Amino acid sequence: MKAIATDIEGVVILEPEVFGDVRGYFFESYAQRDFDALVRPVRFVQDNESLSRRGVVRGLHFQKGDHAQSKLVRAVRGRVLDVAVDIRRGSPTFGRHVAVELSDANRRQLFIPRGFAHGFAVLSDEALFQYKCDRPYAPASEGGIAWNDPQIGINWGLAPGEILLSDKDGRYPPLAEAAELFDYKTDYYA
Of 141, 132, 96, which is closest to residue 112 (Cα–Cα)? Predict the structure, then answer.
């Protein structure tokens, strides 16, 4: 596994070493010892999977307070644009985002630490998307930021008429109006 730093500290792209021959291929998609050494020690407790069609935008989501989550995400089938947004007030990268294409072809994964909002857009006909979380989902602690906030300026790689949102994702406030975010000086892993 190879770790690739991004423009925002803590958000890391992971590329597996793939072993292929005429029979097909093999790779380790996750190994705790490697992850801890390359990224940070995190104990994942929940795996999630979604299937979405082209144009679906999910996000930008986060879990508040004591339910804050780290995520390790990948596209098992298809192609997505995956996005992590720094929502830690006081951070030198507050409001900035990292956008990475994840696909079954590049086999990349993205680690999103606590204190970030996360979302993705489906660029292929459909995408099977998996993510590990280090804390269970807590519905009462969910939060979100508007997917199309001009202050963040995400280019989702889709035409406006293609975008499909849930009602809830369409109602999230822009970053400047979000009430409960994170504090850069707080260690959410302590």
Answer: 132
Integer Cα distance of 114 and 134 in angstroms: 9
Calpha distance 76→103 (Å, rounded): 7
Catalytic choice (25, 67, 97, 131) = 131
- Does residue 72 contact residue 111 with C-beta atoms inside 8 Å? yes
User: Which residues make beta-bridge pairs with 25?
Assistant: 20
Q: What does the alpha-carbon distance between residue 166 and residue 27 come to, in Å, rounded to a whole number? A: 34
97 in catalytic set = no
Q: How far apart are CA 99 and CA 177, in angstroms?
A: 23
Residue of 61, 97, 118, 172 marked catalytic: 61
| Strand order across the 142-144 sheet | 97-103, 79-86, 116-122, 57-63, 142-144
Q: Tell me, what's the pLDDT at 179?
A: 86
What is the model's pTM?
0.95
Pairing of strands 88-89, 19-21: unpaired
User: pLDDT tens-digit profile of 2-27?
Assistant: 999 999 999 999 999 999 999 998 99
Which amino acid, 146?
A
